[in-house]
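Subject: Interface between my chains keeps coming out wrong

I've been trying for a while to get a sensible model of this assembly. When I model each chain on its own everything looks fine, but I need the whole thing in one frame so I can look at the contacts. Pasting all components below, labels as-is. Any help appreciated, I'm running out of ideas.
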Amino acid sequence: MSSHPFCFRYGDKTYCFLFDTESGSLHNVDRVTFLCAKERYKIPLTEEEKSEYALVPAAEKDEINAELDELVSMGVLESECGVVMNKKRIGEVKALCLHICHDCNLRCRYCFADEGTYHTADRAHMPVEVGLKAVDFLIANSGNRRNLEIDFFGGEPLMNMKTVKAVVEYARSREKETGKAFNFTMTTNCLLLNDENIRWLNDNMYNVVLSIDGRRDVHNRVRKTPNGKDVFDVIKDNALRFRAIRGDRSYYVRGTFTAHNLDFADDVLYLNDLGFDQISMEPVVTDIPDLAIKEEHIPAILDEYERLARAYIDRRKTDKWFNFFHFMIDLDGGPCVIKRLTGCGSGCEYLAVTPRGDIYPCHQFAENKPYYMGNVLRSSDYDLGVSEKFARNIVTNKPECADCIAKYYCSGGCVANNLNYAGSMDKPYGISCKMMRKRMELSLAISAIESAPDNE
Amino acid sequence: MKHVNSIVLNGMIGCGECQSCKKPLL
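Reply #2:
Try treating it as a single job with all components included. I did that and got this:
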């Protein structure tokens, strides 16, 4: 089934929609058509909906189904996939995630990287030589691609600014001769975000991701220093100083919500109240019992996304306008079908490099030895065998994604999460799927409501 | 159409240069 009926209540109205996944067509329908569509696609009606549907005259049902049939004949409802792609191209890298250090000045409880160490013992920092060789590796293995990206990641990358600055200077020096253009990004916990670093990042980074989880108690509960001290106030002030000089250039404050703050909409709105207007809030992915998102949390989380969506539409009409990463959707200028099929590109166009120069499919696979792909110091070691496995990671190769409304939005989900929590790269992680589908529906509804001429 | 208000039709290449990881509603 490629067509999906859904509803969204905003103000005193409930808006109904039909989204056709394969054609990317969005239809706003009346309540009766919504019920007829559910019946047409064998989606169980609630008891209340059954009562409503029973009252619809047969002639009206026929009229509605005739309209839906017309949409089918136009290819904008119940459309077929029609796109065949068996594997991604490999050997043309576009982006590197440089692990500037496997060390961190915080001990966040949910850190997938084992508090920044990636399960290694020596808390290594990337030497300048490795950073420069990584630039050479990216240039040499990028084929005809012009736009290349390097993300400074960790651990905490601000702990090793010597290598960060050397990499940027060296990459810039090679742009003219190679015809490449570099974009740099950084993810930081903000603890070392002093005036000098703020100025340098603002001048040199295409995008900066600032990690803040929201309200003071929420943040301090899970993000502390190695000796257990709270850091929220320092981090908030540092991030706000960066925000103050950033203007309209790209940045995000990015939080993580856990089972302890299922009221995470309040954290998003709190960050907005502080003065941030580019916000992302991610569900934690962990197996730590008191933090993990479990199946029983899902109904409350989906309700919370709806609450956030209503507040989001309201605020975007005021001087508290903000952008929420997971409610972004470009309905008439979104990514092409190839991009949607291939997703994040991990293992093929997106790779990670550890402080020693070891290459892995992405930051989530770093130091996971079965996925070792070579070392930037020895370019002859680069082995595309692992890339071959990842090249088949295409959403249309995943049977469980076939009928999903969000299949071209998440492209089959995070490979590492699928592997670690669902048991296979090809099997989507169900808890993430439920949240993704809800965010997709809300993104569509928000976009429709905001683009309507009577939106005030 | 009386019951349907289409907002986007056919909203769905491969150059690899992108960044990597109106009517009132019924």
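Reply #3:
Confirming on my end. The radius of gyration of chain A is 23 Å.
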